[in-house]
Amino acid sequence: MRYVLFALPLILLVALVSVFAFSIDRDSSLVRSVLIDKPVPQFALPPVEGLDVPGFETASLTGEPTLVNVFASWCIPCRDEHPLLEAIKAETGVRLFGINHSDAPENARAFLAELGNPYDAVGADRDRRVSIDWGVYGVPETFLVDAKGVIVYKHVGPLSPQAIETELLPALERIKG
């Protein structure tokens, strides 16, 4: 009995280390959203105060494909991702809407004034309720919505050139059909 009590913590430690070892090289951007292939949630976001683009709502996400990017001025990866969003917009012409996550309007305006504003619309999600409805884990996150208002792709974390080339652009081509 004494040996069993001595071995139990060792067995638990080995099991825990095994779980971590098998998860260590897992790509965290491959979080499958339960909203994939489902209509976007019902919401209405006001514009960021003082920004020269409108807010948006559920109905705004129909008619043509739209890339929806969740960002915040305090998010360092958002800053790194921003030039890629500008390039996607310039190269594809896809509509690009932003959900400004938990941010003061003056900070969001300063962020976009400094880095440029590629967004056709930016909704202020100060209380994070819309982000929660979209299943956002953190910022940045990017969604591709088809012309019917259905979420067809989600990327968790900052977009990379590789993710854009191998995942996002093919998904965009599929829905443009």
UniProtKB/TrEMBL annotation:
Subcellular location: Cell envelope
Any one GO MF annotation of this record: disulfide oxidoreductase activity
Domain Thioredoxin: 34-174
One Gene Ontology biological process: cytochrome complex assembly
Organism domain of life: Bacteria
Keywords tagged on the record: Cytochrome c-type biogenesis, Disulfide bond, Redox-active center
GO CC list: outer membrane-bounded periplasmic space
CDD domains to which the protein is assigned, alphabetical: TlpA_like_DsbE
Disulfide bond recorded as keyword: yes
Sequence similarity: Belongs to the thioredoxin family. DsbE subfamily.
Annotated PANTHER family: THIOL:DISULFIDE INTERCHANGE PROTEIN DSBE
Full protein name: DsbE family thiol:disulfide interchange protein
Naturally occurring in which organism (per UniProt): Devosia ureilytica
